[in-house]
Specification:
This protein is mainly alpha-helical and 149 residues long. The protein folds into two domains: 3-69, no CATH class; 76-139, no CATH class. Helices cover 66% and strands 5% of the residues. The protein has helices spanning 8-27, 43-65, 76-96, 98-109, 118-139; strands spanning 3-4, 34-35, 38-39, 68-69. The protein has a two-stranded antiparallel ribbon with strand order 1-4. The chain has a two-stranded antiparallel ribbon with strand order 2-3. A hairpin with a 2-residue loop joins strand 2 and strand 3 (38-39). Helix 1 (8-27) runs antiparallel to helix 2, helix 3 packs antiparallel against helix 4 and helix 4 (98-109) packs antiparallel against helix 5 (118-139). Pfam families: TctB. It comes from Bradyrhizobium icense. The chain crosses the membrane at residues 43-65, 77-110, 122-141.
Length: 149
Amino acid sequence: MTRSRIDLQDLLFGLFLVAVATGTLVATRNLTVGHAADMGPGYMPRVVALALMAFGVFFTGRGLWRTGRGIAPVQLRPLLAILASVGVFALTAERLGLAIASVAAVMLASFATREGRFVETVAFAIVLSGAAVLLFVKLLGLPIPIWPR
């Protein structure tokens, strides 16, 4: 990789964050905002979008003023593992339940790196699955099945 006068990775990341924040602000423009004591449906999306935009401006500025190295080539293994993980979770969460779908998603995501160990990954998947069930089903009361029907 060669050095360039700008940090292209930070610049592109910052521009991406600004674009996402702008899209969110445009998409929520018709929602009532309210104020901190009486929040409307547009309050939190706008607060998060503005924070995201601030980060985007920061990274864009840093990318313009800092010399950086070129962008590393795309690694297919992590990309495919994470995409497969998200896809499997989306397709199986309702059918197999949150517990099994989240374990499957973590196990698939672990293939994104060669450094993972099977026993540690299984333990982490079970703990994360339990935490997800506790948070989303028990504490928040979302109507998500825990196990297959």
